[in-house]
Amino acid sequence: MNPDELEALIRSRRSSLLLDAHKQVGNDLLQRVVDAAQFAPNHRRTWPLRVAAVTGASRSVLGDTIADAMAMFGDDEAKVVKARTKYLRSPVVLVVASAQGSSENETEENKYAVAAGIQNMLLMAHSLGLAALWGSPAKGANEAIARTCGFETSDHVMGLVYVGWPTQQVPSVERPPTRVNFLD
Ligand SMILES: Cc1cc2nc3c(=O)[nH]c(=O)nc-3n(C[C@H](O)[C@H](O)[C@H](O)COP(=O)(O)O)c2cc1C
């Protein structure tokens, strides 16, 4: 891949949930998407990436777990109801978490590393012709999600990434110019 191709890939990536919820994504492709995240930088080989690939009926289990946690947290009833079926919108949801570090600073920097990893995942998915969207975890549901996904409860859930085959392409959007303060 030359620089122009890399730039084109980065610039054409869009978040999208316009995907086929019933068309499966093979494990080989999912593994490539997930592995891309491991190649993001992390502070002194802390390897904070934690991932669960949630498919099939487990998507409803995840939705119910999150909905129950949201209800306990006092979330809006409409949001709670929506959460129960939300994860059925894509054939797979990659739950991505960041491990706790040995200090507050390491824990924080682990999150940066995993966020960078998620962008790698989104780009890898895009390069494979997959649609993807980084969704936020519901507030108050961290522990419930972590338990369901087999993570440590101290892991911080960074995102629930919907992945599937697109039914429509999403056009690129105009971005604001990048402001750079050049210091000479
Ligand atoms: C930390 C983070 C959390 C996000 N959470 C959500 C979310 O909960 N729901 C959603 O629809 N999109 C979510 N997004 C995706 C953004 O909506 C999307 O990236 C933004 O609209 C820009 O669009 P683009 O990705 O196509 O450039 C999230 C993105 C990030 C980085």
Helix content: 40-55%
Going by CATH, the homologous superfamily of the domain at 15-55 and 89-166 would be NADH Oxidase
Strand content: 15-25%
Low-pLDDT segments, ≥5 res: none
Tally of strands: 5
Number of helices: 6
Largest sheet: 5 strands, antiparallel
What is the radius of gyration computed over CA atoms, rounded to a whole number of angstroms? 17 Å
The ordered string of helix (H) and strand (E) elements is: HEHEHHEHEHE
Task: Determine the mean pLDDT.
Answer: 97
CATH topology of the domain at 15-55 and 89-166: NADH Oxidase
CATH architect. name of the domain at 15-55 and 89-166 = 3-Layer(aba) Sandwich
Q: Which CATH first-tier class of the domain at 15-55 and 89-166 would you pick?
A: Alpha Beta
Shape: globular
**Secondary structural class:** alpha+beta
Q: Quote the distance from N terminus to C terminus.
A: 32 Å
What compounds sit in this structure? flavin mononucleotide
What does this entry look like structurally?
- With about 180 residues, this protein is an alpha+beta fold.
- The chain has a domain at about 15-55 and about 90-165: 3-Layer(aba) Sandwich (NADH Oxidase).
- It contains six helices and five strands.
- It has helices at about 5-10, 25-40, 60-75, 75-85, 105-125, 140-150; strands spanning about 20, 50-55, 90-100, 130-135, 155-165.
- Strands 1, 2, 3, 4 and 5 form a five-stranded antiparallel beta sheet that branches.
- The structure holds flavin mononucleotide.
- Flavin mononucleotide (FMN) binds near residues 14 and 133.
- Flavin mononucleotide binds near residues 15, 134 and 159.
